[in-house]
Amino acid sequence: MIAHPLLPKLRLLKLSGMLLTLDLRAAQAAERQLSATEFLALLLDDELERRAQQHLVHSLAISGCDSLKTISTFDFLAAPGINRTLIQDLAACAFIPRHENILLCGPSGVGKSHLANALAIEALKRDYRVLSRPAHRLLSDLQAARATGAHTRLMTRILTCDLLVLDDFGLQPLSAQAVQDLYEIITERYERGSLIITSNRAFTEWAEVFNNDLLASAALDRLTHHTHTLTIRGDSFRQRDRKKEAPPIPD
Questions:
Q1: What is the pLDDT of residues 169-217, one digit of tens each?
Q2: Does residue 183 lie in a domain region?
Q3: How many angstroms separate the most distant Cα atoms in the chain?
Q4: Is residue 153 located within the same domain as residue 48?
Q5: Are residues 96 and 155 located together in one domain of the fold?
Q6: What is the distance between the alpha carbons of residues 198 and 164, in angstroms, rounded to a whole number?
Q7: CA dist., res. 96 & res. 88, Å (int)
């Protein structure tokens, strides 16, 4: 098939998905006696699949998500307290067009960040715009962007993405400016875009992060409306792994 007449035309049109599978599809067409239309349909499917995969790779790269932390790689057996059915329902991403939020609370190391990342990847697969960052880093980036003139562009991206993931909310103290930015993000995205937030603070402590009773009340009222709250309990995955790797103590 090296001299197949379609090869130079596919190269010229940059249809690499069709180019890579041309030999296979031509052989299948001959073996199965496919019509020209059926042969073309197979090639077009290959090209569409290649473009979809290429788009997903690009979306993953700019989203900040970790491609390895998915639903399939999460160890539900090690976290029996997590409602697996609920997670699988949320993975369908119906909460995003409804502009609902997901709040994941629990101690460090119980899988909150992994689950948040996994749900974000499911959103990317469905062609939603996703931005995922540790909360303190996103707010620090916003502050730094003021000095470079990039603040408006970054804030626009934060406010207009379909799903914003803020990891480790409340882990580090926030400056007065960061609190104002966080309040703006929550209020502007209210009923316009979905949020997934993870925190190792008890939910009752979230207001302390704002260090401003008025802003805290207004922001949390919006944040907790139309929301799915999951409180995860249990031992840290990292601590369990460390115990497994530790050498036995001699008698």
A1: 988 888 889 999 999 999 999 999 999 999 998 777 888 888 888 888 8
A2: yes
A3: 76
A4: no
A5: yes
A6: 12
A7: 14
- Please say whether the beta carbons of 117 and 66 come within 8 A: yes
Q: Could you give the angle at which helices 176-189 and 213-223 cross, rounded to 10 degrees?
A: 30
Q: How many domains does the chain fold into?
A: 2
Sign of the CA dihedral with 17 first, then 22, 26, and 27 last: negative
Task: Indicate whether this model's pTM tops 0.90.
Answer: no
Q: How far apart are CA 14 and CA 201, in angstroms?
A: 51
Same domain, 45 and 135: no
Which CATH number do you get for residue 207?
A: 3.40.50.300
Per-residue pLDDT of 128-164, as tens digits, reads 999 999 999 999 999 999 999 999 999 999 999 999 9
Is 169 buried (19+), middle (13-18) or exposed (0-12) by CB count in 10 A?
buried
Q: Any alpha helices (H) in 33-100, and if so which ranges? A: 36-63, 84-90
- Per the CB < 8 A criterion, the answer to whether 189 and 155 are in contact is no
Instruction: Give the H/E segment covering residue 131.
Output: strand 130-134
The whole domain housing 21 covers 7-63
Does any domain span residue 103? yes
